[in-house]
Write a structure and sequence with these properties.
Layout: E1 4-9, E2 12-17, H1 27-42, E3 48-53, H2 76-85, E4 90-94, E5 97-99, H3 101-108, E6 111-114, E7 119-121, H4 135-143, H5 145-153, E8 158-159, H6 160-165, E9 171-172, H7 178-189, H8 204-208, H9 211-219, H10 221-224, H11 229-242, H12 245-261, H13 263-278, E10 296-299, H14 303-314, E11 319-322, H15 326-345, H16 351-359, E12 361-364, E13 375-378, H17 384-397, E14 403-406, H18 413-417, E15 426-431, E16 440-444, H19 451-463, E17 467-471, H20 479-496, H21 500-510, H22 516-523, H23 539-545, E18 558-560, E19 566-568, H24 570-582, H25 592-612, H26 619-630, H27 639-646, H28 648-657, H29 664-671
Parallel strand pairs: 2-3, 3-4, 4-6, 5-7, 6-9, 10-11, 10-13, 11-12, 13-14, 14-15, 16-17
Antiparallel strand pairs: 1-2, 7-8, 15-16, 18-19
Helix pairs in contact: 1-2, 2-3, 3-4, 4-5, 4-11, 5-11, 11-12, 13-26, 14-15, 15-16, 20-25, 21-25, 25-28, 28-29
Bound molecules: 3-hydroxybutanoyl-coenzyme A and 1,4-dihydronicotinamide adenine dinucleotide.
């Protein structure tokens, strides 16, 4: 069965693509589109053309798996130029997502009709690219440079309604009558001169007011820091106003090819597939029946419990939240309400949606109210004794067949499970703070966790907008376990003479949002402190005793001004020198290169051990964890992909140079010239 077929409706030829799952524009599809257009052109009885897709979506873009391979068959640009060149009107009929090359197909059609739920966008930038089939040239000419800039350089899709408001969609048609409505629309256009996006003049907005490009760059500075593609996108949109259409397309091609050959795009394409692979669990049949989850319980309404509950409430799942004392319960639910109200105030949801979410919440002081929950997530204090007591109690109260999860950061999930008579229903669900915002969810698979339990929670994580990865049971799981050697090295280096702000700066320059000492200040240095200012046994005790508890009190490792700008503190410098002397640490100058290697290489080494022990299913899962949970820069592809790009032999040499341990797997792979990601 060909992937592209045609259908005659009197004087209209409908070209239909059916290339599951997302109608990616692979070679056979491009060939089919060209053949369809040729058929329409060579048949005088055809007066107009409709292009639509079967399945769940309009073309979601070029086929990413073809990238980096030799182009076979017509290029996408050749295919779509044929559409635009037609004198007979060509109409794109859009449902689902018209993304990337798919949006470029739509742009090359003379008209676009879409169902109300459709989305259109140019997300190439999220793959480290810019549109490569004239999208950066047609869109500004059709919709203006100002409207094109965020679409090209940030890449978030827009709704059909928004697309209509900028002239990208001509008509919104019935949700269930796209095929017929598109044919009727096409018929109305017969005999009229065809409008071509490449001939549009809307891009004059950028010529009249060239400041918009720099303004946009400045407005987005934080978001695009370190990424190559957004700037290339801005340049291409600007070129649309400065050059002829043909010259603009050539400029786009030049920028596109340069990005495609670079490491950033390779890293981001790796990440695209990594995120999807992380959702797959080795050894579990994806068709395994799931456990229905229609009511969730959360224990503990502290920092994590409240945020965890909000995820489910926002997804329309009722939650019962349990605390020990009324005061803690009221405080916790109050924070949740305030968070929702703030989100609504910022326009990210309506006040009505916020109220609906809160109406699904049942606060309670009794575990008995959890009896009919399908899933209960525990977020009480990080203490094995407390956790075991809670799980024992839950086991006796919550109905049979319900899943019991712990949000522990470090503790042994197998031991927690042993407090119940249903260890196969127990697992870790490690959310990250703030739990209602952070995307990552580590699913900790206990020795006895049942397949359907793990699969159910994996599917559920998508429903609540999380990106999940599976970890085995080990201290700190994947993420915190790898954080630990980095922190050790950071602490060791400041005792050996490195400036702590330089340690932070090295990570900032690498692309992290903050370094380890800034992170301590933000989290609060006093967390877990014994609170006795006279008992000073560590550097941290000394900082806490000096009232340097972190950003919340205006001073920690750094002094903070009112705008929260940090300055290294003389008091801290003196404290570090004092402790280094006490510990007999010889002082020397430590270069930024050494800091870089000693912070990052041991993380790769720990990642190798995690793989060696089977605690992560695949190297790319580790990348997913670090990118989504800890701000590892996406454009490097995550720690394991990054290690691949600089060479495992270089990592090993660096570790050895600094007298640091080398995992067996790392050393073997380096010797064999292999990579983590194959
Ligand atoms: N090429 C190849 N495979 C693709 C693909 C693409 N463009 N888009 C999705 N897939 C694959 C996924 O890898 C996944 O495969 P798997 O089942 O084996 O894991 C499968 O299709 C389903 O994808 P999702 O799990 O992501 O499905 P969702 O329903 O959650 O999301 C989507 C659908 C919104 C379309 C999402 O897949 C997506 O964002 N795709 C990428 C869109 C994109 O980046 N397009 C631009 C491509 S670059 C381009 O067009 C260059 C041009 O300018 C020349
Ligand atoms: P928290 O101290 O803010 O909240 C814990 C809450 O649990 C308190 O409100 C307390 O009253 C309540 N509680 C304690 N024992 C209880 C019991 N037996 N029954 C009912 N409620 C009880 O702590 P936080 O930060 O929310 O941490 C909770 C868990 O989440 C810990 O295991 C922690 O390691 C983990 N975690 C914390 C992260 C963070 O950044 N804070 C990140 C990821 C996991």
């Amino acid at each position: 069965m060909p992937v592209v077929t045609t259908e005659r409706h009197d004087d209209i030829l409908v070209i239909i693509s059916d290339n599951p799952p997302v109608n990616a524009l692979r070679q056979a599809v491009r060939e089919g589109l060209v053949a369809g257009i040729d058929e329409a052109m060579s048949d005088d009885s055809v007066q107009a053309v409709v292009i639509r897709c079967d399945g769940r979506t309009f073309f979601a873009g070029a086929d990413i798996t073809e990238f980096g391979k030799a182009m076979k068959g017509p290029s996408l640009l050749e295919a779509i130029d044929r559409m635009e060149a037609s004198e007979k009107p060509v109409v794109a009929a859009i449902h689902g997502t018209a993304l990337g090359g798919g949006c470029e197909v739509a742009l090359a059609c003379h008209y676009r009709v879409a169902v109300p739920s459709a989305k259109l966008g140019l997300p190439e930038v999220k793959l480290g690219l810019i549109p490569g089939a004239a999208g950066t040239q047609r869109l500004p000419r059709l919709a203006g440079a100002e409207a094109a800039l965020p679409m090209v350089a940030i890449g978030n899709p827009i709704s059909a309604q928004k697309a209509q408001s900028i002239g990208l969609v001509d008509k919104i048609v019935g949700e269930d009558s796209l095929a017929a409505d598109a044919i009727a629309f096409a018929r109305e256009q017969i005999g009229k001169p065809v409008p071509r996006a490449s001939e549009g003049t809307a891009n004059e907005d950028g010529v009249k007011n060239p400041a918009i490009f720099d303004e946009f760059r400045q407005k987005m500075a934080r978001k695009i820091r370190g990424f190559d593609a957004p700037n290339a996108g801005i340049e291409a949109v600007k070129a649309a106003g400065e050059l002829s259409y043909q010259e603009g397309v050539a400029r786009e091609r030049e920028l596109f090819l340069k990005l495609m050959a670079g490491t950033q795009s390779a890293a981001m394409r790796h990440y695209f597939f990594a995120e999807r692979a992380a959702g797959k669990i080795d050894g579990i049949d994806p068709a395994t029946p799931l456990i229905p989850i229609s009511k969730v319980g959360v224990i503990g309404a502290g920092t994590m419990g409240g945020g965890i509950a909000m995820n489910f409430l926002s997804a329309g799942v009722p939650v019962t939240i349990v605390e020990m004392k009324r005061e803690a319960l009221d405080r916790g639910t109050g924070v949740m309400r305030k968070n929702y109200e703030n989100t609504a105030r910022r326009g990210r949801m309506t006040m009505e949606q916020a109220q609906t979410a809160m109406s699904l919440l049942t606060p309670s002081l009794s575990y008995d109210d959890l009896a009919d929950c399908d899933l209960v997530i525990e977020a009480v204090f990080e203490d094995m004794g407390v956790k075991k007591e809670v799980f024992g109690k839950l086991d006796s109260i919550v109905k049979k067949g319900a899943i019991l999860a712990s949000n522990t950061s470090y503790l042994d999930v197998n031991e927690i499970a042993s407090a119940t008579k249903r260890p196969e229903y127990v697992l870790g669900m490690h959310f990250f703070s703030p739990a209602n915002i952070m995307k990552l969810l580590e699913l900790v698979r206990g020795e006895k966790t049942a397949d359907d339990v793990l699969l159910t929670v994996m599917k559920l994580s998508k429903k609540i907008g999380k990106i999940a990865a599976v970890s085995g049971v080990c201290p700190g799981f994947i993420g915190n376990r790898m954080l630990s050697p980095r922190q050790q090295q950071a602490n060791a280096m400041i005792m050996e003479g490195a400036n702590y702000w330089e340690v932070d700066d090295v990570l900032l320059e690498f692309g992290f949002p903050m370094g380890p000492f800034q992170m301590s200040d933000l989290a609060g240095i006093d967390i877990g402190w014994h609170r006795d200012p006279d008992k000073i046994e560590t550097m941290r005790d000394a900082l806490c005793a000096a009232g340097r508890w972190g950003q919340k009190v205006g001073k920690g490792f750094y002094d903070y001004d009112e705008a929260r700008q940090r300055t290294p503190s003389d008091e801290v410098k003196a404290l570090i020198a004092e402790w280094a002397a006490k510990e007999g640490k010889e002082q020397r100058e430590i270069s930024k290169d050494e800091i870089h290697e000693r912070l990052l290489y041991p993380m790769v080494n720990e990642g190798a051990m995690i793989l060696e022990e089977g605690m992560a299913q695949r190297a790319s899962d580790i990348d997913v964890v670090w990118i989504n949970g800890y701000g590892w820069p996406l454009y490097t592809g995550g720690p394991m992909f990054w290690a691949d790009t600089i060479g495992l032999d270089a990592i090993v040499a660096g570790l050895e140079k600094h007298g640091l341990p080398v995992a067996e797997m790392l050393s073997k792979k380096a010797a064999a010239g292999e990579t983590f990601n194959g």
